Amino acid sequence: MTPAAITAAPDHCRPSLILWAGIVLVGLHVLVGLLSLVWLPYDPTAMAGGRLEGPSLLHWIGTDRLGRDLLTHLMIGSRIALIVGLGAVAIGAALGVTLGLLAAFASKWLDDALAATLDILIAFPTLLIAMLVVAASDTANLWSAIIALGIALSAIVARLTRILAKRVLVMDYITAARTSGSSWPKIVAIHILPNIWPTLSVNFALQFGLAVIAEASLSYLGLGAPPPNASWGRILQEAQGTVYTAPLGAIAPGLALVSLAIGVNLLADGLRDTIDPTRRAR
């Protein structure tokens, strides 16, 4: 290996600027969400000021139509967004990876049936599926929204897992492992999952952002976390009647939602560039 190649090799492993931007944006929301667990400026249910007050030293972002501190509710909204995103991705990953691996190992007719079912589910909007699942439950709450979004996202994960696993199954080292007497669970754990995990991790990051936006939409429609949980979607819904007289009440949660969604997408793009150095070279 030439000296030039030696010095150039570490550059491919160096995180990109896009990845760092995503880490910073998402990291800020994580810090705010963790801080809300131990400290809040005011009690979220307390009428700490006048109605629709502007930013001040006591209320940095102002108050809502009931006189509650907006910064307190935004901090709680960051915590709820992170809980929903992580919970929905965990459920979607568990269901999706399991179904995708079963489809990859299934017989042709069962594989075709599962693939057709997944395509039908993917054709429906994620928010619509989540609304149907939440509506089918007895009450709308945070956990029903997480489960609904996880089920809705699992179809996308299952389809991607099936495609990636089928590509790995035709490799020579899989044939060699089978010839040596390795069982299918061992092949999945040692050969298949490690090879498809980098691509799946990028998809999980994208699913996280989609789950956060979908939860805000559910809360805006009254199907998300009930009061006093201050979801960003509920804050937007409550502020829509006073958007002309106190626009900050709608702008602040909107900016928080957009910044987290952009941060997650930048993080996913940065992970993709880091996993596939040829993209950075291009």
Provide a concise account of the structure shown.
The protein has 282 residues and is mainly α. Helices cover 74% and strands 0% of the residues.
Structure, explained:
- The chain has helices spanning 3-13, 17-38, 70-105, 108-123, 126-136, 142-169, 172-179, 184-220, 232-239, 248-275, 277-281.
- It contains eleven helices and no strands.
- The protein has one domain (16-35, 67-281): MetI-like (MetI-like fold).
- Helices cover 74% and strands 0% of the residues.
- It has 282 residues and is mostly helical.
- The model is unreliable at 1-13 (pLDDT under 50).
Number of strands: 0
Mean pLDDT: 86
Number of domains: 1
Question: Structural class per helix/strand content?
Answer: mainly alpha
Order of helices and strands: HHHHHHHHHHH
Q: Give me the CATH architecture, please.
A: Orthogonal Bundle
Q: What level of helicity do the residues show?
A: over 70%
Q: How many helices?
A: 11
User: What low-confidence regions span 5 or more consecutive residues with pLDDT below 50?
Assistant: 1-13
> What is the CATH C level class, in words?
Mainly Alpha
Quote the distance from N terminus to C terminus: 23 Å
CATH fold call: MetI-like fold
Q: How would you characterize the largest beta sheet?
A: none
